[in-house]
Design goal:
- The complex is a heterodimer of chains A (232) and B (275).
- By secondary structure, chain A is an alpha/beta fold.
- Chain A has a domain of 158 residues: 3-Layer(aba) Sandwich (Rossmann fold), CATH 3.40.50.
- Chain A is built from nine helices and nine strands.
- In chain A, the strands form two sheets. Chain A has a six-stranded mixed β-sheet, with helices on both faces. A three-stranded antiparallel β-sheet of chain A has the order 2-1-4, covered by helices on one side.
- In chain A, strand 8 and strand 9 form a beta hairpin.
- Chain A is globular and about 50 Å long.
- Chain B folds into two domains: 127 residues; 141 residues, no CATH class.
- Chain B is 84% helix and 0% strand.
- The longest helix of chain B has 36 residues.
- Classes of the chains: A alpha/beta (232), B mainly alpha (275).
- At the A-B interface, helix 2 and helix 3 of A face helix 1 and helix 3 of B.
């Protein structure tokens, strides 16, 4: 089976600065993978190349064997690290927007999650708090029955109670055929949902491992290992 | 998908335009009322005259604003919705970049045309009586009829040619703006300045290319004048040269459109680098 995400000698330069230096990695279906690393390690750059917002300088990144393009955008559900929704829309408008453009968008699922987090369908984005906006974005992204979820800092701005709900949503929403890639530096919070981890440092892959392996072989949590690897 | 994109583009821009159109029509109506009160008679109290004068000024100001806004929104919808943070949504939709360009351009042209009609209508509303307004379609068809009689089918053709030329010209201007912003977005920093510089650059190159193109045509025309002569296109009262001239202008505009379109599409397709 083709891996859902595969990078080969992937390089991205911004001017002279190298954000990704020859990254090789594979993400298989059915896994929840943590893309971990300090600020500026290349997490966002990699996710943006995978979602087609950035062009790789050299090397290739393939999604289900295909280069990023219209076809892969059907498969990928991407949550950016910033507000990206039109301010003038209300929640119901956004649901229609997603339903119009994504065949795999499950409206009922979204409505259910919104109700659970007490977000009204007629609420306008303009009048929402930053945290609520992030919740809406995440609900929209997770309500797609996609094959690859790319979540860039999904829980950064929301309160701990909502964090739990969101993480549970992530685990319960993806199918065996799909993979989730979560980029974050809030490792302790997401650790319990992860199957594998990829550590990035200075644009290079520093370590790839399954979480079980880390626990068994090193006898430590991912959070503890992270602190050791990236000790300042 | 193209239809859906246009639907949302219209929705996103309609709020602003409908507000502007509403304002201009309301001001037009107010002006009309002042005219009917006989504001130029000089026998109304000063405050009323002052209000009438200000309403007139406001009316022209809003008309100016409509056309400035049409331009600003054309720029802003491309820059913000595609190359800004909202581009994170637009470029992750399973839609091809050319569909973004076409949908944005079509909607921009649509508003430009509607703006012209609203302006004309509001002007007519002020300038002529309601009875005359009702007769307007008749008058228009009468004028058309006279032209038609005089120039026969040439008139219709000429009218169509002007229409197509205006549209092609408008497209080429909009696409030049899009191309400039796409080029500007290739810069690592100072993307706004980059866009502006690209705009000036494109303008310069286009002027130069146009110059060469028409000099080239002139040379061809002179060298082959005998051929054209023998085709008897240039009978003394023939309107053929006019049509040929229009055709050449249209073709040139379409060539420019194509170049800008291909350039913009290439960048959005292959060189996209959202900040």
């Amino acid at each position: 089976m083709t891996p859902i995400l595969e990078c080969q000698s992937l390089i991205k330069r911004y001017g002279k600065k190298e954000a990704l230096s020859s990254v090789d990695l594979t993400v298989n279906r059915g896994r929840i993978v943590g893309l971990l690393g300090p600020n500026g390690s290349g997490k966002t750059t990699m996710i943006k190349i995978a979602s087609g917002l950035l062009t790789a300088t050299e090397g290739t990144l393939r999604i289900d064997g295909k280069l990023p393009g219209t076809e892969t955008k059907e498969l990928v559900s991407y949550l950016p690290d910033r507000p990206y929704l039109n301010d003038w829309m209300c929640v119901a408008d956004l649901l229609s927007f997603f339903q119009d453009f994504y065949r795999n968008f499950n409206r009922e699922k979204a409505v259910e999650m919104l109700a659970r987090l007490n977000i009204g369908l007629n609420d306008r984005l303009k009048s929402m708090s930053k945290g609520t906006k992030e919740k809406v974005q995440l609900i929209l992204v997770m309500s797609r029955e996609a094959e690859l979820y790319l979540l860039d800092e999904p829980i950064g701005g929301v309160d701990p109670a909502a964090r739990d709900y969101i993480l549970n949503t992530i685990i319960s929403n993806y199918s065996e055929n799909a993979a989730v890639l979560i980029s974050t530096h809030l490792i302790a919070d997401v650790e319990r949902v992860l199957d594998d981890v990829i550590f990035l440092a200075g644009g290079k892959v520093a370590l790839t491992s399954s979480v079980d392996q880390i626990r068994e072989e090193r006898g430590m949590s991912v959070d503890a290992l992270f602190r050791e690897v990236y000790k300042c | 998908m193209l239809r859906k994109l246009m639907k949302y583009e219209l929705k996103a821009t309609a709020r602003i335009f409908l507000l502007l159109y509403g304002t201009v029509l309301a001001l037009g109506l107010l002006n009309k009322l002042f005219f009917m009160m006989g504001i130029f008679g000089g026998n109304l109290p000063f405050p009323v005259e002052l209000t009438a004068g200000l309403t007139m000024m406001m009316y022209f100001f809003v008309i100016g604003a409509i056309f400035v806004m049409t331009l600003i929104i054309t720029i802003q919808r491309f820059y913000k919705n595609l190359l800004g943070d909202e581009g994170y949504l637009m470029f992750t939709l399973p839609v091809k970049p050319w569909q973004h360009i076409v949908s944005k351009m079509t909607v921009a042209i649509f508003w430009f045309i509607v703006s012209i009609f609203v302006t004309i209508f509001s002007g007519l509303m002020i300038g002529i009586s309601f009875e005359l307004l009702a007769e307007l379609p008749d008058i228009f068809s009468q004028i058309m009829g006279e032209f038609y009689e005089y120039f026969s089918f040439h008139w219709l053709f000429f009218f169509l040619e002007i229409l197509v030329l205006c549209l092609a010209g408008l497209c080429s201007q909009i696409l030049m703006i899009y191309a400039s912003m796409s080029a500007g977005h290739l810069f690592q920093k100072h993307r706004l300045i980059g866009s502006f510089a690209s705009f000036l650059g494109f303008n310069f190159v286009m002027q130069l290319a146009s110059g060469f193109f028409f000099v080239f045509l002139d040379v061809i025309g002179r060298k082959n004048w005998r051929l054209f002569h023998n085709l008897s296109l240039f009978e003394p009262d023939s309107l053929m040269p006019l049509h040929i001239g229009m055709l050449i202008l249209i073709i040139w505009s379409l060539i420019i459109c194509t170049v800008y379109f291909i350039f913009t599409n290439y960048i959005l397709n292959r060189k996209l680098n959202l900040e």
